[in-house]
Amino acid sequence: MFSNRRIWIDGKMTAFKAAKVHILSHSFARGSGIFEVMSVYPTDNGVAVFRLRDHLLRLEHSARDLMMKIPLSRNRLTQAIKQTVRANRVSHGLVKLIVFYPGFGLEVIPTDDKVSVAVAAFQFGRDFNMSKFGEDRFATAAISKWRKLDPRTVPVHAKAAANYLNPMLAKLEVRKRGFKTPVLLDTDGFVAEGATESVFIVKNGRVLTSRPEHILLSITRMSILQICADLKVPLAQKKLTPQDLRACDEAFFSSTTCKVWPICRIENHKLPAPGPVSLKLQNYFDLILAGKIKKYHKWLELVD
Ligand SMILES: Cc1ncc(COP(=O)(O)O)c(C=O)c1O
């Protein structure tokens, strides 16, 4: 399926099948890779990567948290991303960029300090089905028994592969109970986030979302905060309880891949999906992504 796809690795376009790391590489064995997933949209001015610079800033933040040295400049990474999008003829899809230790080592710390960079790009529909965007237009959510990683144990703001065992377990657990996506509570029992999504609820016309301390600093979440300010939709970041989830008027997840994803049920609590406030934000966000709102052209990094 991917036979004619190309993955950019350390400056070279590599055939999909040849893009390999050693089984004993530190990043494979210990999950020490850091990564970013970015979205690509066809806009009025051409194909664009959404908030590319902000993704690279977050990547730099992840690298600092892991004491890892990214071998390439921000400018070089930007060129690599654009080149990969073009080489794979992606106009609407995703880019995944991974920074990793390819070297062999048995110690818990990487003993070979070589760092590699890989960039892959995928087109929705052609390369994979995103059922979320088809029949799964609405999410169902349940509170997982697994708590979100505590920021005193690992840097939760780092988008590091090893941190994803946590949402993987949570998602497997709620899937078994018939729900699509988990909501993870933090170790104090407050709402943190979804598996790979931020959580928003609406109560009496006010949008509420978790505080940033325990969650990934999501680019989509930041965008929605800005959109709420623009549209004069009242918003607060606060400690939310499971009871708040069960008593809300509307709810949605957000992320690079699902954008604004209305939730139609949180455990037994049925919700309108999309509710009026969610729909307003969803529509405005779609206009921004299509390049229809001039003020936000700065969020769209054109590929050509
Ligand atoms: C744990 C977690 N939270 C939230 C998000 C949403 O972040 P973004 O909007 O930057 O995609 C992600 C993205 O994958 C994630 O992994």
Give an account of the 3D structure.
The protein is an alpha+beta fold. It folds into two domains: 6-123, 2-Layer Sandwich (D-amino Acid Aminotransferase, Chain A, domain 1), CATH 3.30.470; 131-289, Alpha-Beta Barrel (D-amino Acid Aminotransferase, Chain A, domain 2), CATH 3.20.10.10. 25% of the residues lie in helices and 28% in strands. It is built from seven helices and 16 strands. The strands form two sheets. Strands 7, 8, 9, 10, 11, 12, 13, 14 and 15 form a nine-stranded mixed sheet that branches. Strands 2-1-6-5-3-4-16 form a seven-stranded antiparallel sheet. The longest helix has 14 residues, at 52-65. The chain starts with 5 loop residues before the first strand and ends with a strand. The mean pLDDT is 96. Bound molecules: pyridoxal-5'-phosphate. Pyridoxal-5'-phosphate binds at residues 37, 167, 193, 196-198, 216, 218-221, 255-256.
Features:
single chain; 304 residues; alpha+beta; D-amino Acid Aminotransferase, Chain A, domain 1; D-amino Acid Aminotransferase, Chain A, domain 2; nine-stranded mixed sheet; seven-stranded antiparallel sheet; binds pyridoxal-5'-phosphate
Provide a short characterization of the protein structure.
With 304 residues, this protein is α+β, with helices and mostly antiparallel strands.
Helix and strand arrangement:
Blueprint: E1 6-9, E2 12-15, H1 26-30, E3 34-43, E4 46-50, H2 52-65, H3 74-87, E5 93-100, E6 116-123, E7 139-143, H4 165-176, E8 181-185, E9 191-193, E10 198-203, E11 206-209, H5 219-230, E12 235-237, H6 242-246, E13 250-255, E14 259-266, E15 269-270, H7 276-289, E16 300-302
Parallel strand pairs: 7-8, 7-14, 11-12
Antiparallel strand pairs: 1-2, 1-6, 3-4, 3-5, 4-16, 5-6, 8-9, 10-11, 10-13, 13-14, 14-15
The structure holds pyridoxal-5'-phosphate (PLP).
Pyridoxal-5'-phosphate binds next to helix 5.
